[in-house]
Amino acid sequence: MEFLQSLWIYLLSAAPFLMLGLFISGLVHVFISTERIKKSLGGKGLSGIVKSSLLGIPLPLCSCAVIPTAATLKKNGASNSATSAFLISTPESGVDSIAMTYGMMDLPMTIIRPIAAFFSAFFAGVLQLFFNNEDIEIKEEEKKGCCKKSSKKEIEQESFLSKCKRSFNFAFVELIDDFAFWLTLGIVFGAVINFIVPADFFDGLDGILGRVLILAIGVPLYICASATTPIAASLVMKGMSPGMALIILLVGPATNISNMLVIGKYIGKKGVLINVFAIVVVALLMSFITDYIYTAYSLPIDFKVSAHAHEHASILEVGVTVLFVILLLKSLFLKELPKIYKKLSSKSA
Question: What is the spatial distance between Cα 255 and Cα 271, in angstroms, rounded to a whole number?
Fold first, then answer.
């Protein structure tokens, strides 16, 4: 019973802000031309790196579309540096994960997270510019994305009402389908940490060794940006420093073995190593800076996820949370479970 209460508190903290973030993501996806963004990132040098790093932060691309989009960037003339910057800033941040950070953590972490994502992407881009500037030929079939695309003529003739419908569909169907499994895992795991782990469990583990341990675990594993938020919030509530939690927020979404193997086709093995190096270095540096900010300015570590345990939720919060749970369960039962069943059936056959 106490665990279910902890899980409900997490949902109350995350759902309203995540739904707002999803709504904004849908608007950005439909009303801001992704093709125009791709073309604008085709520049060389520092300008391409800066634009790729900045535009990748809020851009609502599903995880399956990041790699094909990078291939399209290369086709449009983007350098390895701009492509790498985009590949890092896009998964590390997003409108939905930024909103969720504010909902479950606090304003300083909401500001620090996208700034750290920008510097990770920018640093990687600069390193690529100096040490891995060779172009790699991309096969035609690898330029195709997994998401449905409309022709230029169809987009121009589309009505405002149709765009609104497509925006809602992208936000509350496609995006939720994309991260339903990982987000559910993150929320449940965060609630488990909050329920089982002692309050002072991570006290004293804010040195370099603790950070290196988090990096060793986080680099090869994948968890989406939104799903890392409840886990990071729970760990801070159990004594982990905000800086160490930031490492989880940065490294988990940006690096994993499967994506690194695919990315190597576009920027080469050297490029992959440069990206991982840049992410690790910036994550470590920003983690120390974050802890310094909280200590030097005596910022209270009183994340909103803990505040919800001591206050009554409004009818609006409850309603939005219930709606979010329904959408999440729909994606799990109609999308994720059939995938799992299909994989198990193919293995047993």
Answer: 13
How far apart, in whole angstroms, are the C-alpha atoms of residue 230 and residue 97? Answer: 10
Q: pLDDT value at position 62? A: 52
**Cβ atoms within 10 A of the Cβ of 196, count?**
11
Q: Which of 332, 28, 349 is nearest to 180 (CA)?
A: 332
Give the pair of three-digit tokens for residue 278.
């840049």
Q: Which domain holds residue 155?
A: 2-348
Sequence letter at residue 76 = N
pLDDT, mean of each 10-residue run, the chain (349 residues): 82 87 84 66 77 85 62 71 88 88 92 96 94 64 48 63 91 86 86 80 78 88 82 89 94 78 80 94 96 94 67 84 94 87 75
Check if the beta carbon of residue 241 is closer than 8 Å to that of residue 233. no
192: tokens are 């488990």
pLDDT for residue 142: 46
Count the domains in the chain. Answer: 1
Taking CA atoms, 228 is separated from 29, 50, 231, 267, 275, in Å, by: 23, 25, 5, 27, 20
Please state the pTM of the whole predicted model.
0.81
Contact 126, 258 (CB under 8 A): no
Which pLDDT belongs to residue 156? 57
Question: What sign does the CA torsion over 36, 38, 44, 45 have?
Answer: positive
